[in-house]
Design brief:
single chain, mainly alpha, two-stranded antiparallel sheet, disordered N terminus
Length: 1726
């Protein structure tokens, strides 16, 4: 103690001693020692002052408080004067005690008394320990003076918080315990409050010093050379420095306590009323509390041997505690914390505790102090294993008991403590948290007998838990996704859902206000959970209003990649997908367990089928041992079954139990705690038998039992004893003697020790054998019924239930107190998806019921917030089913559907509408097909807005009938949501039809509605709603590529429903479609193409509507969009315009309304006139529209379309051909259609002219067609080029001119020829061949082949008219014209195409000559003649061979064989059809006869040139007549006449201009053979008089008998000419022999036939032939004549017998003369 140099009277130490001496009580004798000690101390102080004054002549003095000494001598002096204060504290005078305590407090506070020296009376401890003990001893219980109590508190707070004094372990605990006891014992509210605040402050200092010391140590370790004090250490040290001013702290505490006390006068009065107790000693109850509250801790020397046990008998001292602390401050904190936990674990007395009882107040204070410690826990406290062990073994066990306490205050503090633990220790308390949730939180909420206060406390705690996203997700990940844990999250949501729906609190004695508060709190929790889930998954959410749709898709991809993270569960690195897999596996396990509890075998089979459980008995046994969720009764019955497999399982089950070193009763308890014994004796017998065997096996060294029979009987006996002693139904309980007697002789006829049996009896009597404690989730089935007789009884039952719940929870908590399970701290957004999948049905049920049943604004707001969050989650994770369910529910509660009553619209419905609009605006990218429900509501909202504006009914269109959708039809919202089946009847919906619906709006007036309804409907037209709806459509530009397609598709569907109304369709959605098309036209082409695929299809449907107004609007809207789209232009080789304009084509094709078709044509015409420069691929659609218009019957449509295409061909093709090159084929096809419209002949001709002009464009600009994009002509179906190119996929550049230019023109001309009337097709045919002739020089050879394939289509049998007259006209005109034109073209370009097309052309000729049209057949033959004559010199041998073969085929095909075989019997029956068939046959035969005759002439003309033969025959006849007339002169041998005759023949022989010289002998002989066949057929027919008569009678060839005389004679004449010509040709001498042979036989045959002719007419017909033959014989040289005449002479002689014509006689005479001359019978003529 420092000696001051100032006035000693002012020194507080001297004053204190003087005050003590001045007190009158000190003067009494029993305080003489105190008085003497004070006087001695004063004398010593005065001596010290004098001595110091003499040593120091000068010195600084101060009136301030004395400063502590800085040297040891001063300290020793200060401690030397401690004895008076100790004696003063030990006296019984309160005033003296207060003075002494105050002086000690100041000495300690200012550092004058540190107490570091040893106690002189007890060297085993320090002086400060003696000082603290002295201060604490001043408190003697309740009689202690209030001022003394307050001064003790001040002194102890100073000791604990001072930096100059250190107390630890036992001394620290003593100080804390004294303040604790003062709080309990004091009747003064101020002292109580001060003590409580002091304890809080002490604990803060104790734990803060521990944390600071760890930080300092860590800092020093990390930087030992230059330690830097951390900022948080400085802050905490600053706080400690502030604590040195103890007086201010205490004054603040006291002032606060006074203020608190002034507000609790009633409590103060109660405390004062109890102050009438005696002051002569401590109250027994308080002494007991004080003595047991905080046990004394040994001194420093014995601290290593500390050990203690809790009141429950469990070992609460962590193993190795004394060696686990790195500093004594940690030991201090541990001791204080453990002591508080033990106080909290003390049970309350049975019954309802008195609020003022020391037990309850002690528990409340301990919980409050623990809450303060846990809430402010630092790193050391949170991580040190010893503290964690105390938390698990003490605090959690205490909370498990107190959390279900019937005392509200205790439960509230316990819940608060649990929240603090959850916040700071959840990673270390996984199992404990599960027990607390499962056994306390959820059971209280699920118990209908719970009080409102308990419900409310739990709900408040859950509100705080649910507000932390990390905690919510951690609950799911660590429990619902853990195979060994309960589904905490799922069960929590289900319970909250029931509370929010009001389904759980119906039976409680709660007021309506309380019930509503609970429902709101439940809704708040659910909404908070959803908000946490939204917050947790915010990284995956893409706000369409925050970025462009392209960036959104990129961000979505990035999030998908980033969320493939990892986490830990059960020590294994796992991904969110693995968590989900574990959850799915857990669901399978739970399903199997449920099935097992119903039917064990079925449950086992299910689990085995899922590969989760083995099929061996040991696998099943292990499952029964480890799985606690199994029904114990079912397990017992299953194990007791006599089946072989059940026995094997039972044996394996018992073998898995370990009974080593366990006494018999403990082993039996362990055996029976896993199942409930079955009721059958046989089952019990099997179980006990195996138990006894297993026990003996595990304890073979135990000599107690002689065999297994003894434990078997004893086990039975113990079970019977348990039932006897603890069953309430047994009146006469078994005594110990009876039990011992019953078990005599069971040990191999010997007795077990009586002491042993006596111990068993006592143990069973005191502790019944029960099954192991398990989850009390089933307690709800055993709670008291709300309808108890009275409130007191119900309260009593509730307390009993809570006590049972607490007991179960405590047992479970103790069982897991030593268990540490790994805890996963969730970090991945993907966890939310399975969480929501598990819980979405109760969420939906809660919010739906809330919106349906309650009109309260707060409830509806919470429900709407919850639905909005749920939709957000479902959208983020693309959960279509869940998203649709919430959106449909939301849409239903808008009351905007067709069946909703308009008179029921309320404020909550308007808020629902706004929420729905908000969802559409914020979550549009994720809505998918849910857009349909949203846009349907918006569509109906427009009707409500019209009513709200007061529009007259006649101006409001109707609504379509309700669609046939299950989710929109009917008045009920029926949802089968997993385990929950909701049937939500919407309010106000009546089937009577008395309510007004939106479909009735056309007949509703705003003035006829109620004011509230009018106000609600008026809200729909508010600025906020209108703008929000408009933002949905204007904001569509920010939707991503997939979302905009879904949006458009839904809008189109709604539009169709609006337009489906038969009388009053609406076009609201159709107008919005046009708007969003404008808004989104700026998207990238890939997205726009997908959008337009939907929009285009919609315009197709709307544009073909039977309602002209709708179709007109659609076409006009389409026109505006098309104009805007075309303005943007298009790059080469793209086809966006083509896709965009396709609806025009579809509407034109499907809509037959002249008005709409005219509108389409005008729209397209406007595009051509205004946007021709920007149109690229759209030209195809334009020409398709004109193509459809070309076949229209309306002149105005046809004229307008043709004018436009005329402009295209005449003007645009000149200036902009390059941009239109791809549509050139379509243009030509369109012109072809104009040419084929039979109603407008002038247009037909003009169209052909334009086609010809197109050919000129092709010829003038061939480079454009070669360089353009490669595409195929659709019409080239049969072209080789097409097939080849199709295989290649591209058209070669050199072929593009043909494929894209010439071929379409020529093909369409052929189509015109095939479709139009005579004048048009003739014109088209002319143009076709003129173009072929004009531009054919540029054609490639294979182009010609394609061209002729097109031309040959003209002759296509299937395309010819069906009617006979039309077909005949077609064949006579068009085909005939085409044949000659083909010959002209082939002749013109024969060098190029002759050999290429010869076979095709010959084949076509064959087709022509085989037709039943005489003109065509003859033309075919004539064309063959012309072709050969025109190109004969150019023909090669192969060509001649093909031509000769053609002639042979024609002869063969056209032989009228039926003439020889036809008979009336073979003809069809005589009917109209039969007559027609016969006549058709006869006509065909006539044509064949004509073809045969024509072909003979053709051969003759080819070989000898046309008209040569006729001229020869005429000259021959004239010469023959001349010879006959001058026969006399010839007979006289007049040389002049004969010389003339010879000169005629010589001149004729050398005037040959035919193809004879170009034909080989082989070819000519082939012709001769053909002619011979024809001749033979004709001769056969002519000689068959019977057949000719038959044909004549049948009407063949009219009134004259049919004959083939011309064919007979002319064919033979032609053959003879050829043979004689060959025989005279000097160049063919090598073939003369063969020719001579043929000539001989042919002549002989002819003469033989001639002499057999019977009729004069027949012989007359043969006269020219015989004249020619005789003439040719005379021409032969003498040598040749001599060779052949021998064959003919006899027959020639026969001719003399006939009356021949003079010409023949003269020639015959000439021959005979020549015979005489040649054979020298007569002299040769001079």
């Amino acid at each position: 103690m420092r000696i001051l140099s100032g006035d000693l009277s002012k020194m507080f130490i001297v004053k204190g001693l003087e005050k003590i001496l001045a007190d009158k009580e000190v003067k009494r004798s029993h305080l003489a020692q105190l008085r003497k000690a004070c006087e001695t101390a004063l004398e010593d102080i005065q001596e010290e002052l004098k001595h110091e004054a003499t040593e120091k002549s000068t010195g600084s003095t101060s009136a301030a408080l004395p400063l502590p000494r800085n040297y040891s001598a001063n300290v020793i002096n200060a401690e030397k004067h401690y004895l008076p204060f100790e004696l003063a504290c030990q006296c019984s005078v309160p005033r003296v005690v207060v003075i002494a305590l105050d002086c000690l407090q100041k000495l300690i506070a200012y550092g004058h008394l540190s107490g570091t020296s040893l106690d002189p009376h007890n060297p085993q401890r320090r002086l400060i320990d003696r000082v603290v003990a002295t201060i604490c001893a001043c408190f003697t219980g309740t009689p202690t003076e209030e001022s003394v109590q307050l001064q003790i508190i001040k002194a102890l707070l100073t000791v604990v918080t001072s930096q100059h004094v250190e107390i630890h372990e036992g001394t620290l605990l003593l100080a804390v315990r004294t303040c604790y006891n003062i709080y309990l014992a004091s009747k003064n509210l101020i002292n109580q409050t001060t003590a409580k605040a002091t304890l809080t402050q002490m604990l803060n200092v104790i734990f803060m010093r521990m944390e600071n010391q760890a930080i300092e140590e860590e800092t020093t370790f990390s930087n030992p050379e230059n330690p830097v004090e951390p900022a948080d250490v400085l802050k905490r040290e600053a706080k400690l420095e502030a604590l040195e001013i103890v007086s201010f702290i205490v004054d603040d505490i006291v002032a606060t306590a006074v203020n608190d006390a002034s507000t609790e006068k009633e409590i103060e009065g109660d405390n004062q009323s109890e102050g009438g107790q005696s002051n002569g000693g401590p109250t027994p109850s308080i002494v007991s509390v004080c003595s047991s509250s905080l046990p004394r801790v040994p001194s420093q020397d014995s601290v290593d041997t500390i050990g203690g046990t809790s009141s429950s008998g469990g070992d609460l001292e962590p193993i190795g505690t004394s060696n686990s602390f790195s500093h004594v401050l940690q030991k201090d904190a541990y001791l204080v914390f453990r002591s508080l936990c033990r106080l909290a674990m003390k049970p309350l007395p049975d019954g309802i505790p008195d609020p003022k009882s020391h037990e309850l107040r002690s528990k409340l204070l301990s919980l409050q102090l623990l809450l303060s410690v846990v809430q402010n826990a630092g790193p050391v406290f949170r991580e040190h294993p010893v503290f964690l062990s105390v938390v698990r073994q003490c605090l959690c066990v205490a909370l498990s008991r107190d959390g279900a306490s019937s005392v509200t205050e205790v439960a509230e503090l316990s819940l608060a403590l649990f929240l603090a633990l959850l916040n700071n220790f959840k990673a270390q308390l996984k199992k404990q948290i599960e027990v607390f949730f499962r056994e306390i939180f959820l059971n209280i909420l699920e118990n209908p007998g719970s009080t409102f206060d308990h419900h409310w406390l739990v709900m408040q705690a859950l509100t705080r838990i649910c507000a932390d996203a990390q905690s919510v997700v951690d609950l799911y990940v660590n429990y619902d996704c853990d195979l060994s844990a309960a589904n905490i999250f799922e069960r929590l949501v289900n319970v909250l859902s029931k509370i929010a729906q009001g389904r759980h609190v119906v039976d409680l004695r709660t007021t309506p206000v309380q019930e509503k508060a609970l429902r709101i709190k439940g809704l708040e929790c659910l909404v908070t959970i959803l908000k946490c889930m939204v917050e947790w998954s915010r990284e995956l959410y893409i706000n369409p209003n925050a970025q462009s749709n392209i960036d959104a898709e990129k961000v979505k991809e990035n999030h998908t990649e980033e969320n493939e993270g990892h986490g830990y569960i059960n020590g294994t690195l796992t991904t969110p997908k693995q968590f989900e897999a574990i959850k799915q596996q857990k669901e399978i396990w739970e399903q199997g367990i449920v099935m097992f509890n119903r039917k064990p075998r079925r449950g086992l089979q299910y689990l085995q089928s899922q590969k989760l459980l083995g099929e061996e008995a040991v696998d099943v046994a292990r499952f029964l041992v480890t799985e606690e969720r199994l029904d114990k009764t079912v397990v017992g019955d299953f194990l007791g079954e006599p089946d072989k497999f059940n026995k094997e399982v039972m044996y394996a089950y018992v073998d898995l139990l370990d009974f080593n070193e366990k006494d018999f009763v403990s082993a039996l308890r362990h055996f029976l705690e896993g199942f409930r014994l079955p009721g059958e004796a046989q089952k019990i017998d099997r179980l006990m038998e195996k138990f006894a065997a297993r026990y003996c096996e595990c304890n073979s060294s135990l000599r107690l039992f002689a065999s297994a029979d003894a434990p078997y009987v004893l086990a039975y006996s113990i079970i019977m004893l348990t039932t006897d002693l603890h069953s309430p139904q047994v009146k006469n309980k078994m005594t110990k003697e009876q039990f011992i007697k019953n078990n005599r002789g069971i040990n191999d006829s010997k007795d077990l020790p009586e002491e042993y049996l006596s111990q068993i009896y006592d143990e069973i009597a005191g502790n019944e054998i029960k099954m192991k404690a398990h989850s009390s989730s089933a307690l709800g089935n055993k709670v008291s019924k709300p309808g108890a007789a009275n409130e007191k009884k119900r309260r009593l039952l509730w307390n009993m239930e809570m006590e049972a719940l607490s007991s179960t929870a405590r047992q479970l908590m103790e069982s897991v107190s030593h268990v540490h399970s790994p805890f996963t701290s969730a970090t991945h957004s993907e966890h939310v998806r399975p969480m929501f999948k598990v819980a979405w049905t109760p969420f939906l049920a809660s919010f739906s019921v809330g919106l349906q049943d309650c009109d309260d604004l707060e409830v509806s707001t919470l429900c709407l917030d919850g639905i909005r969050c749920a939709i957000r989650i479902a959208c983020i994770f693309h959960m279509a089913l869940e998203r649709d369910a919430f959106i449909q529910a939301l849409a239903r509660f808008t009351l905007l559907t067709a069946n909703s009553p308009i008179t029921e619209i309320k404020t909550k419905n308007i808020d629902t509408i706004k929420t729905l609009i908000t969802v559409a605006h914020t979550d549009g990218n994720y809505l998918g097909h849910s857009w349909l429900d949203i846009l349907k509501c918006i569509s109906q909202l427009e009707l409500a807005q019209l009513i709200g504006t007061g529009v007259r009914p006649q101006f409001i269109t109707g609504t379509p009938t309700s669609p046939t959708g299950a989710n929109l039809a009917g008045n009920n919202l029926n949802l089968n949501l997993g385990a929950m089946n909701l049937n939500l009847n919407l309010p106000g919906i009546s089937s009577s039809g008395s309510n007004l619906h939106l479909s009735d709006l056309p007949s509703v007036s705003i003035n006829s509605l109620e004011p509230s309804v009018k106000e609600s409907i008026g809200e729909t037209i508010s600025q906020s709603v209108v703008v929000a709806v408009d933002r949905i459509f204007t904001g569509s530009t920010r939707l991503d590529g997939n979302a905009i397609v879904d949006f458009v598709r839904a809008l189109c569907q709604i539009s169709l429903e609006e337009l489906a109304h038969t009388t009053q369709p609406r076009m609201f959605s159709l107008q919005k479609i046009v708007e969003i098309s404008y808004y989104n036209m700026g998207r990238i082409r890939l997205q726009w193409s997908r959008i337009w695929e939907v929009l285009g299809d919609h315009f197709n449907k709307v544009g073909t509507s039977s309602n002209e107004n709708i179709a007109f609007f659609a076409v006009d809207s389409l026109r505006q969009l098309a104009m805007k789209f075309i303005e943007k232009g298009e790059l080469a080789n793209f086809r966006f315009q083509k896709d965009f304009l396709r609806p025009f084509e579809h509407i034109m094709k499907r809509n037959r309304s002249p008005t709409i078709r005219d509108m389409v044509v005008r729209c397209v015409t406007q595009m051509v006139h205004s946007q021709s420069d920007n149109i690229k691929s759209g030209w195809k659609n334009i020409f398709c529209v004109f193509l459809l218009a070309a076949s229209d019957n309306d002149e105005a449509i046809v004229e307008l379309a043709f004018q436009t295409i005329n402009k295209v061909v005449t003007e645009l093709y000149v200036t902009n051909m390059s941009a239109m090159i791809d549509s050139f084929q379509d243009c030509v096809k369109c012109l072809s259609e104009f040419a084929c419209n039979p109603l407008y002949p002038d247009t037909n001709m003009e169209a052909i002219r334009l086609i010809r002009l197109c050919g000129r464009h092709v010829a003038d600009q061939p480079a454009l067609f070669r360089d353009g994009g490669a595409q195929l002509a659709d019409e080239m179906v049969n072209s080789q080029l097409t097939s080849a190119v199709t295989n290649l996929g591209l058209i070669p550049e050199e072929e593009r001119l043909w494929v894209r230019g010439w071929f379409p023109i020529l093909f369409e001309l052929s189509c015109i020829i095939g479709r139009c009337k005579l004048d048009v097709r003739t014109r088209a045919l002319t143009v076709l061949f003129e173009m072929a002739k004009q531009y054919g020089s540029t054609f490639r050879s294979h182009w010609w082949k394609d061209l002729f394939k097109v031309i040959f289509r003209i002759f296509n049998q299937s395309k010819l008219p069906d009617q006979l007259s039309e077909k005949s006209d077609w064949l006579t005109t068009t085909c005939n014209h085409a044949l000659y034109a083909m010959v002209d073209v082939i002749t013109q370009y024969f060098d190029l195409i002759g050999s290429l097309l010869m076979d095709d052309f010959i084949a076509q000729l064959l087709w022509c000559v085989t037709q039943e049209n005489e003109q065509l057949a003859r033309s075919g033959v004539n064309c063959l003649e012309n072709l050969v004559i025109s190109n004969g010199p150019k023909l090669g041998d192969d060509s001649w061979l093909r031509i000769c073969g053609c002639v042979d085929k024609i002869f063969h095909l056209t032989l009228p064989d039926a003439l020889l075989t036809w008979s009336p019997h073979s003809a069809p029956a005589e009917s109209d059809n039969g007559v027609k068939d016969t006549q058709r046959l006869f006509n065909g035969l006539l044509v064949q006869c004509q073809v045969q005759l024509e072909l003979i002439h053709t051969i003759d003309n080819i070989v000898f040139f046309p008209s040569t033969t006729r001229k020869e025959d005429a000259d021959l006849l004239a010469s023959a007549k001349s010879i006959s007339a001058s026969q006399r002169d010839l007979d006289l041998g007049t040389a002049s006449s004969f010389s003339v005759f010879l000169r005629f023949f010589c001149n004729f022989e050398f005037c040959d201009q035919g193809m004879f010289q170009f034909m080989s002998t082989e070819h000519l002989l082939l012709m001769v053979d053909c002619l011979a066949k024809s001749h033979n057929f004709a001769r056969q027919f002519n000689t068959n008089s019977t057949q000719r008569n038959v044909l004549w009678k049948a009407g063949f060839r009219g009134p004259v008998r049919p004959n083939l005389l011309k064919q007979e004679t002319q064919s033979l004449a032609c053959a003879m000419r050829i043979l004689f010509r060959l025989y005279h040709d000097e160049g063919r001498q090598n073939e003369w022999t063969m020719v001579a042979d043929k000539l001989t036989h042919l002549g002989k045959d002819a003469l033989e036939y001639y002499v057999t002719l019977e009729t004069e007419s027949h012989r007359d017909a043969w006269s020219p032939l015989m004249l020619l033959f005789l003439w040719k014989i005379n021409q032969l040289s003498d040598e040749k004549f001599k060779t052949h005449i021998s064959w003919w002479h006899q027959l020639l002689c026969e001719l003399v017998s006939f009356e021949l014509k003079p010409e023949l006689r003269s020639l015959l005479r000439k021959i005979f003369l020549k015979v005489g001359q040649v054979f020298r019978v007569i002299a040769a003529a001079p």
